[in-house]
């Protein structure tokens, strides 16, 4: 619009006033009471089972974390030195000492350059700061999902104010009336993004929000509300400040989000039914139905809400509904979405057309529909949550974000979490390649690509959402590695990223089977690529940061998973 522009003058002014680019030396505040370790059974006044289990990284002391991390790095050093690894991993000159990498300062400078100000206060970071690009599109907006790694970076660096401002501003936007054409969206819907507009004549700032009415395909972002709750918990864990989450506004905001996804309908499954393009994969990619990314975020947001909701009259009603949904959701996901070698063999031998309560092939999946690639891809050791499960349909593709969030939220059992990390190690070339991390695997191509994507020219094979490599996923991989006690995997991935990201001007994504080429339409100085790297580095250097984004397993939710017996003798 004429006479209106993004408030980048304020951004630049903020940068000039923030000359200190390096990390602050701040203490970590990742242990407010023990509120996250409540068993769900306590909330329903059920007796707690006294079951011994191996402690995870979240329960260990910082000293134990440091010892384990050092041992992991020593093992990595012995296995992949001298020089370069068998996978051509760049050798790190500071692998066993936490000297800042030279590109860390550049990353902080670039991150601060992306700050957006509203009436003098920082409220987020724009998606990309690419001067070379002729088309801005919506990359000059603050996206909810994109801001999460930026928020974590600022929290880890002891700068929580911008995160608080963002949470409050998006909460205010949630209260707006939301319409697409003549249809009104649910009251709890969070925006996909917002843009700060500056009127130089009136010297006024205003905000324009997008709830999906301007998005490609006009799809509302299902993940925005979940990320908002997860980030509110991260802020609370990092600062130890419960006052923000306990405000009536935040309590109401959470209840509105939960009311949307806990409402009763015709569903026979506890998973959320979603349209294509409702999450990070925001274009048509065949993820309609019950995508793993949404289910994992849903699970994590429900668990975060449990410890944030007040136990007043309104809160208790939602807490009871959440507990029941979590039990059903965890059983469903761990039973039907999980795939390993044995389960794959069981599905391969499924009977079909079973009609009774005793049916084993409950979704009537036709074994002939199993794609050929998965038989070679599945190692003897390892497993993962597949992309989608619905009647007569299983999407066997690997999706990185959903599997990493499953580990962090403890949707994955400790055994499943270890199996996911085993798979990444066993299939490093396919899932990591030369630039972490594949958003999904494998790419769809030829006739399938034409049918599934509608001939999308941006999602061609091994590009963008269709098997592209996204540096932002590095922080999720690192967090999952630390939680499962595999820091050496994260170090290998970070080494790859450090060899290219700064030199390539922080691209949005990379193309090719190995992620070797800068994406054909990738923006440079993509903010979440920058922030994802910083968060990964800070977590690896101080694993106690993991507490703000990780949830411990609730022992009462672990189901007895019975293997399929649907084969003929």
TrEMBL record:
EC numbers for this chain: 3.2.1.26
GO terms under biological process: sucrose catabolic process
Entry keyword tRNA-binding: no
Catalysed reaction equations from the record: Hydrolysis of terminal non-reducing beta-D-fructofuranoside residues in beta-D-fructofuranosides
Keyword rRNA-binding: no
Main enzyme class: hydrolase
Function: Invertase that cleaves sucrose into glucose and fructose.
Family: Belongs to the glycosyl hydrolase 100 family.
Protein's name in the database: Alkaline/neutral invertase
Organism in which the protein naturally occurs: Handroanthus impetiginosus
């Amino acid at each position: 619009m004429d006479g209106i522009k993004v408030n980048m003058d304020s951004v630049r002014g903020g940068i000039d006033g923030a000359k200190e680019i390096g990390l602050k030396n701040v203490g970590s505040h990742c242990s407010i009471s023990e509120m996250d370790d409540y068993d769900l059974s306590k909330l329903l006044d059920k007796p707690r089972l006294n079951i011994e289990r191996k402690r995870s990284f979240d329960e260990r002391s910082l000293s134990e974390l440091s010892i384990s991390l050092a041992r992991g790095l020593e093992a990595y050093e012995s296995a992949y030195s001298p020089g370069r690894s068998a996978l051509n991993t760049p050798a790190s000159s500071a692998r066993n000492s936490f000297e800042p990498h030279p590109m860390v300062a550049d990353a902080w400078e670039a991150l601060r350059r992306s700050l957006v100000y509203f009436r003098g206060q920082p409220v987020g970071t724009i998606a990309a700061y690419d001067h070379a690009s002729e088309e801005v599109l919506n990359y000059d907006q603050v996206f909810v999902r994109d801001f999460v790694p930026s928020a974590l970076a600022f929290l880890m660096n002891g700068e929580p104010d911008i995160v608080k401002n963002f949470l409050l501003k998006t909460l205010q936007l949630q209260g707006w009336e939301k319409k697409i054409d003549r249809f009104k969206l649910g009251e709890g819907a969070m925006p996909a993004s917002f843009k700060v507009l500056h009127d130089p004549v009136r010297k006024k700032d205003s905000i324009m929000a997008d709830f999906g009415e301007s998005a490609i395909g006009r799809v509302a972002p299902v993940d925005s509300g979940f990320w908002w709750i997860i980030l509110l918990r991260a802020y609370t864990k990092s600062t130890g400040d419960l006052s923000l989450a306990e405000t009536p506004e935040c309590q109401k905001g959470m209840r509105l989000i939960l009311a949307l996804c806990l409402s009763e309908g015709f569903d026979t499954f506890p998973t959320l039914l979603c349209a294509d393009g409702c999450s990070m994969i925001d274009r048509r990619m065949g993820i309609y139905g019950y995508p793993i990314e949404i289910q994992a975020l849903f699970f994590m947001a429900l668990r975060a809400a449990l410890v944030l909701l007040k136990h007043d009259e309104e809160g208790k009603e939602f807490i009871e509904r959440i507990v029941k949904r979590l039990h059903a959701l965890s059983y469903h996901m761990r039973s039907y979405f999980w795939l390993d070698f044995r389960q794959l063999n069981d599905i391969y031998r499924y009977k079909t057309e079973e009609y009774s309560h005793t049916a084993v092939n409950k979704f009537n999946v036709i074994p002939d529909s199993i794609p050929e690639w998965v038989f070679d891809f599945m190692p003897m050791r390892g497993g993962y949550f597949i992309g989608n499960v619905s009647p007569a349909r299983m999407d066997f593709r690997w999706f990185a974000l959903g599997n990493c969030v499953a580990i962090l939220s403890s949707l994955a059992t400790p055994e499943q979490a270890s199996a996911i990390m085993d798979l990444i190690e066993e299939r490093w070339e396919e899932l990591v390649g030369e630039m972490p991390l594949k958003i999904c695997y494998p790419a769809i191509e030829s006739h399938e690509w034409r049918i599934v994507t509608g001939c999308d020219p941006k999602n061609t094979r091994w590009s963008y959402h269709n098997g592209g490599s996204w540096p932002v996923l590095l922080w999720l991989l690192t967090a999952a590695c630390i939680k499962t006690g595999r820091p050496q995997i994260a170090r290998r991935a970070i080494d790859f990223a450090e060899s290219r990201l700064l030199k390539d001007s922080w691209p949005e994504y990379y193309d090719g089977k190995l992620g070797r080429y800068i994406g054909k339409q990738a923006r440079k100085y993509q903010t979440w690529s920058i922030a994802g790297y910083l968060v990964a580095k800070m977590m690896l250097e101080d694993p106690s940061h993991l507490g703000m984004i990780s949830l411990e397993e609730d022992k009462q939710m672990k189901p007895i998973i019975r293997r399929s017996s649907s084969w003929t003798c």
